[in-house]
Amino acid sequence: MEYVERKIDKSLSEWKNKEHRKPLLLRGARQVGKSSSVRELAKQFDYFLEVNFERDDHELNVKEVFKKGLHPGRICDELSVIYDTPVIAGRTLLFFDEIQSCVEAISALRFFYEDAPEIHVIAAGSLLEFALQELPSLGVGRVHSLYMYPFSFDEYLRAGKKSLLADAVLNASPESPLSDVLHKNALQQLLTFVLTGGMPEVVAQYSQGVSLLECMNILNDLTFSFYDDFAKYKSKFSTALLREVFGSVIHQTGGKFTYSGVSKTAYHAQIKESIRLLELAGLIIPVIHTSGNGIPPAAEMDPKYKKQLILDTGVYRRYLRLNLSEMLNADRLIVVNKGALAELFAGLELQKSAPNNQPEQLYCRHREKTGSNAEVDYVVQCGEHIVPVEVKSGTKGSMQSMFRFLEEKSSPYGVRISLENFATYDKIRVYPLYATGNVLIHN
User: Fold this and answer.
1) pTM for the full model?
2) How many CB atoms lie within 10 A of CB 258?
3) Exposed/middle/buried for 24, CB within 10 Å: 0-12, 13-18, 19+?
4) Where are the alpha helices (DSSP H) in 197-238?
């Protein structure tokens, strides 16, 4: 399958060319394209040695190489013989895939930094966060991390050979909106992306002419693969409960996540642990309440109030079995911006637009007073300001919560995300839904 360019490719190339580099940890949920991006980077090297600890250990017994000791010189010598590939500084890319299956290999990364910094080493794993929790220390400052997610809308456009439209969207702003023609074109592309989602296999296949129906079958397989992985999270933990929580997150999208909405038989502690495991796996993303009185927003967050987002709109739509033909034949604008789906898309785009080395924690603001409830969908930090972000259906909708936030917090402006073109009025900066990623990039 042809490789599709990703945002992280630039960060990987920059890492490769650094004079003083650290071993790299590539982090993210399963099936988001980590291994493919590393293999694409490998084309810039003379040699590529890939160790897959789940696949190769049965036949090659590679874990024993690390259990015998963590000295990089010996490890490289033995791997060179096992894989018949030389490990030469500056010419070989050494890739440890599914590294969560070999804790000793994770521990070895710090020694590559200390004793063999000239070797290019990348490690990745879909359940990496679980293994990292079992280590007393990875070695502060000795390993560099990059975070990877499903395709953003910008990446999707470029994968579909629509780079000029992607550039136009990226360069547009409330002060410099798109033409009506380009705006409508972008909305049309957004519809398909929201329906199919950003999982790399789906994007790659669709960009090469595979039908939408077949893409839905691919999404089915991906969802089942998530379930298969659930059993790996904790051998003694209830896989059935993890599935139940995963499904409940989807059903509760757009509102406060409540444990009572998950199961009437499971204990609070069991549901809480399920949520923690799914967050660690990158399959769900928390949106935490913050008072929003100043920076950083984390200073006044309240984890007791959370919303939860599933990692991909395609997985969301497929799980709910929303009828594809009805959605395609309906009013396109209504379909795309239908409540929870639009809020989900916006949150995911905010996360993906952050730098690859700085995972974006998402925040919201919920205000409960007698006779007066108000919620701001997202609260983001733009420079030295806290900015409220509201996602609106269609091109209309009141913004009482937004204006109340601006008044109470003395924020300089708020952001409205809707199906309108870029615009400004009062203290509001309007971004089209497809340009949600511009909010953090341009402000």
Assistant:
1) 0.92
2) 11
3) buried
4) 200-207, 212-233
